[in-house]
Amino acid sequence: VSCAWDEDPTLRLWDAASGKQLGASEERTEGLLSIAMLPDGRHVLTTGKDGAVRLWRWER
Known about the structure:
The protein has one domain (2-57). The protein is 0% helix and 45% strand. It is built from no helices and 6 strands. The strands form 2 sheets. Strands 1-2-3 form a 3-stranded antiparallel β-sheet, with no helix packed on it. The protein has a 3-stranded antiparallel β-sheet with strand order 4-5-6, with no helix packed on it. β5 (43-48) and β6 (53-57) form a beta hairpin. The protein is globular. 7% of the residues are buried.
């Protein structure tokens, strides 16, 4: 499982083996500086230009 974002302000979760998208954030994620997947594969931490640290939970 991997997590990524680019110019599209949607945080996306992918199955690294198949390339299939597993989920996407419903909130806009503009201004992200970093992302980190937690070892459980269900939570992602993000930091933003606004100084916020957010914890995202993914439902599969």
